[in-house]
C-alpha cells in the first residue's frame, strides 16, 4: 500500500538545494534541480550523516555527503564515489499543478 504526501508548492523549494523532511518516521532529503524534485533517503549508507547537509551537484544529478564526500545518484540512490558502497532509498516524487507530492510505498 502506498501513501501520497503533499509537501507544498514547488516555489518553496530552492533550486540547487536539499531539505530534510521526516515522513512516516523516515528521514528524506528533498532536492530541487530546476523544475524537477528528487527524494532520497537522508542518511548516508557509509556513516550516520544527514545527506541534506551536503552539496547538490546539479550537472551530475547527485547529492554529496558532507562528511566523507560520497556522491549518491538522485535517481537511483546508488553511490557514485567511495567510501559509500551501499545505495540509499529513493522515493517517487512529482510536481502536480505546481505542488510537490511524495509517494511512499
From TrEMBL:
Membrane-spanning ranges: none
Keyword flag Metal-binding: yes
Coiled coil: none
Domain Rieske: start-end pairs: 5-102
Alphabetized Gene3D superfamilies for the sequence: Rieske [2Fe-2S] iron-sulphur domain
Molecular-function GO terms, alphabetical: 2 iron, 2 sulfur cluster binding; metal ion binding
Keyword Transmembrane helix: no
Keywords: 2Fe-2S, Iron, Iron-sulfur, Metal-binding
UniProt signal peptide: none
InterPro entries: Rieske_2Fe-2S, Rieske_2Fe-2S_sf
Pfam family membership, one: Rieske
Name used for this protein in its record: Unannotated protein
Phylogenetic lineage: unclassified sequences, metagenomes, ecological metagenomes
Amino acid at each position: 500500500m502506498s501513501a501520497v504526501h503533499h509537501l507544498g508548492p514547488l516555489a518553496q523549494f530552492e533550486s540547487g538545494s536539499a531539505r530534510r523532511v521526516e515522513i512516516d518516521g523516515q528521514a528524506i532529503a528533498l532536492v530541487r534541480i530546476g523544475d524537477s524534485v528528487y527524494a532520497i533517503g537522508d542518511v548516508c549508507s557509509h556513516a550516520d550523516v544527514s545527506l541534506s547537509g551536503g552539496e547538490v551537484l546539479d550537472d551530475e544529478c547527485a547529492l554529496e555527503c558532507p562528511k566523507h564526500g560520497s556522491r549518491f545518484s538522485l535517481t537511483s540512490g546508488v553511490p557514485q564515489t567511495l567510501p559509500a558502497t551501499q545505495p540509499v532509498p529513493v522515493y517517487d516524487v512529482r510536481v502536480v499543478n505546481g505542488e510537490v507530492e511524495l509517494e511512499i510505498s
